[in-house]
């Protein structure tokens, strides 16, 4: 049994960019359409399953290896979709991606009066 979101419930004409790395992401990837995109993490279970039989995946496949490559590919896909749909151009500055080191101090919590 496939436990995945029902993409057919999406309202309007939308394209889906599905990111995944685990074997549990394979079944949802099979439900994507030709206009959609799947982004498996290279050398992880989803990527390996797709490589065994890539023709069963209807969506356009874009693999990635690390966060920097993921960001680059994802922003390119978003810009391509926006351009195709004559939408306003989206630049990298419009997407707020942040990384936080485990060594960085978190902001101090504000005291709450009761």
TrEMBL record:
It holds the Pfam family Put_Phosphatase. InterPro entries: HAD_sf, Pase_PHOSPHO-typ. It comes from the Eukaryota. This is Inorganic pyrophosphatase 3. It comes from Prunus dulcis. The lineage of its organism: Eukaryota, Viridiplantae, Streptophyta, Embryophyta, Tracheophyta. GO terms for molecular function: phosphatase activity.
């Amino acid at each position: 049994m496939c436990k995945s979101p029902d993409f057919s419930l999406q309202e309007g004409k939308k394209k889906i960019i599905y990111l995944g790395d685990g074997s549990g992401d394979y079944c949802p990837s099979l439900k994507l359409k030709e206009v959609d995109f799947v982004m498996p993490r290279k050398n992880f279970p989803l990527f390996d399953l797709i490589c065994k039989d890539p023709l069963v995946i209807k969506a356009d496949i874009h693999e990635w290896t690390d966060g920097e490559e993921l960001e680059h590919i994802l922003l390119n896909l978003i810009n391509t979709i926006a351009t195709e749909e004559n939408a306003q151009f989206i630049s990298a500055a419009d997407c707020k991606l942040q990384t936080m080191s485990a060594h960085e101090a978190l902001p101090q919590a504000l005291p709450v009066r009761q």
